[in-house]
Amino acid sequence: MYINRLIEKDLKDAVSRRKSVLLLGPRQTGKTTMLERLSPARLLNLANPDMRQRYEKRPAVLIDEIRDLDARADTPPLVVIDEVQKVPALMDALQVLLDEKRAVFILTGSSARKLRRGSHINLLPGRVLAYRLDPFRRDEYAKGSLQEQLLYGALPFVALDASEEAREQALRSYVTTYLEEEVRAEALVRNLSPFGRFLELAASESGGLINLRKLSQEIGVSHVTIGSYFQILEDCLIVERIDPLTRSATRKKLTRGNKYLFFDLGVRRLAAQEGCRLPLESLGKLLEQWVGLELIRSMRQGPGHLRFWRDPDGPEVDWVIEREGRLIPVEVKWTETPTQQDTRNLRTFLTEYPEAEKGIVVCRTPRAMQLAPRIRAIPWQDLAEIIRT
Q1: Rg (CA), the chain
Q2: Edge-to-edge order in the sheet of strand 316-323
Q3: Considering the entire predicted model, what is its pTM?
Q4: Which CATH number is correct for 7-132, 3.30.40.10, 3.40.50.10310, 3.30.420.40, 3.40.50.300?
Q5: Protein fold of 146-388
Q6: Tens digits of per-residue pLDDT, 201-230?
Q7: Rounded to an integer, what distance in angstroms lies between the CA atom of residue 252 and that of residue 383?
Q8: Rounded Cα gap, residues 335 and 365, in angstroms
Q9: How many whole angstroms separate alpha carbon 256 and alpha carbon 14?
Q10: What is the phi/psi pair of residue 132, to 5°?
Q11: Same fold, 7-132 and 146-388
């Protein structure tokens, strides 16, 4: 069963205009499956050891191959290179081919880390359009209860499996073979024990305010090392970093630390070594993270950033959408019956920020409700409504 992805239209449009693309996304989000449907003239998968070694030995061989392919085609051929970060030296060869307009390329990668390492790496500035493929968004695949989405996440190969036992096994395998092995290998982490413990704590603390010094004390490494570990996860597309909103005309102590969200809630749970029976308090926190991930993904290609707002001595707002000079504060509640009490921090925010025209409470209410002037409660299923307005 194949589920159409929203990004497919953008990719097809880019290819029709003969624009090359760099498509990043975590492992198993469906990049290869989706691109095979575009019927490329050639698909090179650098995860294949034999193919990878061929181009590692002589990256310029790609130039000879694509020139030959172009010479036999009526129009520049479409070439997909999967897991391009496996052979970063290919980027120089690709620059030559792009400048010669020999082919239209779609380059995919599950990590930006190797592409950024060292000043000699060529990121093809101005030559490719950058896109990101994530696990399913709600408006791509809406099946499954809320609790299933919070526990098992939205990776395609997990979400499309009907068996809870099979989903659990697939997630466990993902955490073991990718997070614990490949991320470590790519990051060149020599001391595996602290990194393994860090991964568990980072997953447990996902969505919360991160205290690097506290984590360093628990794990037994420096806070600088903890910061580098988070950078590894960010570069490998495993976490999303959320920066706080810090400008204020009235408050001097707004939090300046960051939050991190694991890219998939199922992977987060297995990495945190949590079971399937979670207390209501945990489910509420997971709903907050789910909303954050959906908002981030909705703004990938458009203007806007996701922030949070927190005064250590006062109010806080879970998420703040910052877009084209406007702010939309969003609170997330587990309740089915929101009340005006749930709008307290939103009302404070709207008073202090005139560029914020309205506030939203996302919860499990079956229908939208007006809770206070300029503040509505909406069902979690209708989250896309925030994005369109």
Answers
A1: 22
A2: 259-262, 239-244, 305-310, 316-323, 326-332, 359-363, 375-379, 369-372
A3: 0.93
A4: 3.40.50.300
A5: Arc Repressor Mutant, subunit A (1.10.10)
A6: 999 999 999 999 999 999 999 999 899 889
A7: 32
A8: 7
A9: 38
A10: -135, 135
A11: no
**10-45 tens-digit pLDDT:** 999 999 999 999 999 999 999 999 999 888 999 999
Instruction: Show the tokens assigned to 286.
Output: 């997971």
**What's CA 285's distance to the chain center, in Å?**
18
Structure tokens at 129: 């359009």
**CA nearest to 316, candidates 240, 372, 259:** 259
3-state secondary structure of 71: helix
Whether the predicted pLDDT of 188 surpasses 70: no
Domain positions in the chain: 7-132, 146-388
E strand or H helix that includes residue 8:
helix 7-16
| Tokens representing residue 356 in the block | 């914020």
CA distance 150 to 207: 13
C-alpha span between 48 and 50 (Å, rounded): 6
Query: What dihedral angle (degrees, nearest 10) is formed by the CA atoms of 150, 345, 325, 125?
Result: -40
